[in-house]
Amino acid sequence: MDTQALSCFATYMGVYEYLSRGSYTASEVTKHLANDQNSKTASKHSKKAADGELEFISLNEEERLVLDKSALIDYLLEFCTSLNLEADIHVKRKQKPEDGIASITDSHSKSFQDMKSQY
Q1: 101: burial class by Cβ within 10 Å (0-12, 13-18, 19+)?
Q2: Can you give the pLDDT at residue 90?
Q3: Are 91 and 69 in contact (CB under 8 A)?
Q4: Predicted structure pTM score
Q5: HEC profile for 10-67?
Q6: pLDDT tens digits for range 70-84
Q7: Which alpha helices (DSSP H) does 57-109 contain, by range?
Q8: 57-87: string of b/e by CB count within 10 Å (b at 16+)?
């Protein structure tokens, strides 16, 4: 198993974290990274990603950087298997705005129904 990607994750975790949210241009990645790093380092990390030097990151036809999540999942599962671990890794499901709102399963609570039946 090739463990070179692990050191790549440690060094360029900011790039991986940002691209896990979607595809971005190299300049967008640089701008985002500049919030936590100096601009020279941010630019260098973004350039390495754009040049194809970072594992699981590539440029698509629209010149946007993309994280290959399925290949990353396969790598992590293989890594877990080599350590005799069992894992279930999947892409996080996108939440809809209404997912945060509790669903109503009954029109009135039990205590309200009891109170109403007394009168």
Answers
A1: exposed
A2: 87
A3: yes
A4: 0.75
A5: HHCHHHHHHHCCCCECHHHHHHHHCCCCCHHHHHHHHHHHHCCCCCCEEECCCCCEEE
A6: 999 999 999 999 999
A7: 69-82
A8: bebeeeebbbbeeeebeebeeebeeeeeeee
